């Protein structure tokens, strides 16, 4: 009986992986490893590419590149290639078009005061319109909002014990002036969960732009409510 159960799991997994482009296979593993999809059931294993890699990224990889997601991450911060070296130009343009309404990010107030808005002169941002949708989905629960934005548990504190947080909104012109672009993974703010392609592990699009101080952007206290 155990052999039959093993075959029913292993065979579809092997077939799914054999049919999957290497970049999708490696990205799927990164999204599952760093995201919140660890408890998937075995019936979903045949759809790993569509279930675990955000749809636009599945077909974004250039066919004429030798770079793989594992190779990019393994190169290490400081030596990773420009995203244009492995991502299709149309994909890059369409990704950045999602920021045409401006960009947003959140800072812990104490860290913002201590370090400023940019880590090494750049900051990660998310499309303002999509951030507003996620905030509405959280329905006033700070503990739910933190992981939804890829900020880690407890970023906003709890209802009973909130943390001082600042929301920064940047206009389309400000992010354009700051050379809005896809993250390369070489940025100071790129953490070990960074994935090539411009998405957080939970599928939220991200980009980076250059910023040196608070003269750029609208910085306001933020409360989850």
From TrEMBL:
Q: Where is this region: Disordered?
A: 61-84
Q: Which domain of life is it from?
A: Bacteria
Question: Which organism is this protein's natural source?
Answer: Microbacterium aerolatum
Q: What is this protein called?
A: Uncharacterized protein
């Amino acid at each position: 009986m155990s052999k039959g159960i093993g075959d029913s799991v292993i065979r579809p997994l092997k077939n799914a992986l054999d049919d999957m482009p290497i970049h999708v296979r490696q990205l799927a593993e990164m999204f599952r490893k760093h995201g919140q999809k660890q408890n998937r059931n075995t019936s979903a294993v045949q759809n790993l590419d569509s279930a675990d890699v955000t749809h636009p990224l599945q077909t974004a990889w250039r066919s004429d590149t030798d770079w793989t997601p594992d190779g990019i991450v393994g190169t290490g911060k400081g030596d990773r290639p420009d995203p244009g070296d492995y991502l299709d130009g149309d994909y890059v343009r369409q990704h950045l078009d999602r920021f045409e309404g401006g960009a947003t990010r959140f800072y812990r107030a104490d860290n913002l005061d201590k370090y400023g808005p940019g880590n090494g002169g750049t900051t990660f941002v998310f499309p303002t319109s999509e951030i507003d949708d996620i905030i509405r989905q959280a329905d006033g629960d700070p503990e739910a909002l933190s992981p939804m934005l890829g900020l880690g548990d407890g970023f906003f504190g709890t209802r009973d014990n909130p943390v001082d947080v600042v929301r920064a909104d940047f206009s389309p012109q400000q992010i354009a002036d700051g050379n809005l672009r896809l993250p390369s993974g070489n940025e100071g703010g790129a953490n070990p969960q960074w994935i090539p392609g411009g998405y957080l592990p939970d599928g939220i699009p991200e980009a980076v732009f250059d910023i040196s101080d608070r003269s750029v952007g609208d910085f306001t206290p933020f409360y989850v409510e």
